[in-house]
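User: Hey, my collaborator sent me this sequence without any context and asked if I could get a structure. I don't really work with proteins. Can you help?
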Amino acid sequence: MEAALLLGGEGRRLKPLTDRLPKPLVPLGGEPLFHHTLRRVLPHVKRIHLLTAGDPLIWQEYAKGSPFREVLAISHEEERLGTGGGIRALLQRVRPPLVVVNGDLVLEGELTPFLEFSRNAASRGQVGVLLALHVPDRSPYGSLLLQGERVEGFQEKGVGGEGWIYGGIAVLFEGAEEYFPTKKVLSLEREVFPSMAEAGVLSAFRLRAPFSDAGTLRGLLKAQRIIMDSPLWPFKEFTSSRLKAFTPPLYISPQARVGRGCSVGPYVTVAGEVALEEGARVENSVILDGARVGRGAVVVDSALSPGTVVGEGEVVRGRIL
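Assistant: No problem. I've predicted the 3D structure and written it out in C-alpha cell form, which is a compact way to encode the shape of the chain:
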C-alpha cells in the first residue's frame, strides 16, 4: 500500500503567513504541520507521494532534510490540478490501494481500524472508502449522506445539526480510476466521490476523534493544540531554562532569543530566529522565523509571519500579521 499527501493548496485564508511558505510547511510544535498526520499514515504504507505545487525549490529543500526522506517521492504540479488531478495522474503509475490524505488535516486518531475496514469493503466490491468524522455542527462543512456504511450522497454547506463529514482521508482500490473524469483539473470531493456514491461503490468508516482543518487561523491554532497534546508529538518533554515564566506545552527554537521576564505559553510555537524582548507575553500563537515581539508586547491567539515586528507595548489578538 502507498499513500499520497495533497500538499498543493495555496493557503489563501492564512495569508500573509503563507506568502512565501506553503501551508503544509508552516511549523507547529517544531516541525511542519503535516508531519503529525504523516506519522499516523507511515506505519501502514511503504511509500508516500507528496503532491506539491508552487515553488519547487522549497519542496526540494524540504525533501533533502526530511526525517522521512527514505520513503518520500515528490510529484510536483507545474499548474495546480485540484485535489483529483494529481491523484488521477498518480494512479497511472501507482497500483492501488492508495491512501489519499489532505495535507492540512491534523487528526488525533488511530488509523488501523479504518484501514482494516477499507480492505473488507474492497472485498465486497467497493472502490473507495472515506474516513467520516463526527461534528456537532456540520453547517461549515459539506456533509455525508450515509445509509449504514454506504455513502449515498453529499450535502452542501449550510445545513445545521450534528452529522458526519469527509475527514480528509480516503483509500482508493482497483477500479477507482474509472470514476475520474478525463480532464486535467478536477476535484475529488465534487466530482470523483459523488460519481462513486452514485454507482454504489463508496463506503465510509465512522470515527469520533479530535481533528482540525488548518486552513484558517482558528483551524491552525486548533491543530497546534491537537499536535501538542498528542503522545506522538516528538517535543513533549521540551523545557527551557531561559524562560522566567512559561506554561507548557510549547516549543521554542534553539535559535530564538527570549528576554528576561517573558511569559510564554501554553500552546506556543516560536520557530527559527525569533526575538521576544523583555516582558513580552505570547499565548496560543505561532511566531515564525525572523519575527520580533517588542518589550512588554502581547500576542494572543495569533500568527506572526516571517519578519513581522510587534512594537513595544503593542497588543495583538486573533490576527495574522
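In plain terms: The radius of gyration is 21 Å. You can pass these C-alpha cells on to your collaborator as they are.
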